[in-house]
Amino acid sequence: MTSSRVSLDDLAEVALDVRVVLGRASVRIADVLAYTPGTVVSLDIAPDAPVALLVNGVAVAEGDIVLSDDGSLGVEILRVISTADGAAQP
């Protein structure tokens, strides 16, 4: 049996699912069914709090929402979360 090692270069083209979590809300089904245009859903986060950046469902960083040069929204990474112990790193 031959053993071959995989390098980071080999994985460079693998697509990952990246999501940004602004906050969460816990609501009743009745409330969701009553949503109409203009309904405001309050989140459990302060307006200036960092957002979580998840890759394939795992939190990997925290950051601030920013406006990109092309006018779209982006995330400026403030802290990377260590995979070893889960602690945030500045």
Walk me through what this model shows.
The chain has 90 residues and is mainly beta. The chain has a single domain, classed as SpoA-like (Surface presentation of antigens (SPOA), Roll). It contains two helices and five strands, in the order αβαββββ. Strands 1-2-3-4-5 form a five-stranded antiparallel beta sheet, with no helix packed on it. The mean pLDDT is 88.
Summarize the structure.
The protein has 90 residues and is mostly beta strands.
Secondary structure blueprint with pairings:
Elements: H1 8-11, E1 18-21, H2 29-33, E2 51-55, E3 58-67, E4 73-81, E5 88-89
Antiparallel strand pairs: 1-2, 2-3, 3-4, 4-5
CATH topology: Surface presentation of antigens (SPOA)
Output the structural class: mainly beta
Output the strand order for the largest sheet.
1-2-3-4-5
The rough form would be described as: elongated
Number of helical regions: 2
> Please, what is the average pLDDT?
88
CATH superfamily annotation: SpoA-like
How many distinct domains? 1
**Span from first to last CA?**
44 Å
> Tell me, what is the CATH class?
Mainly Beta
Oligomer: single chain
Overall number of strands: 5
Rg calc:
18 Å
CATH architect. name:
Roll
The unreliable regions are none
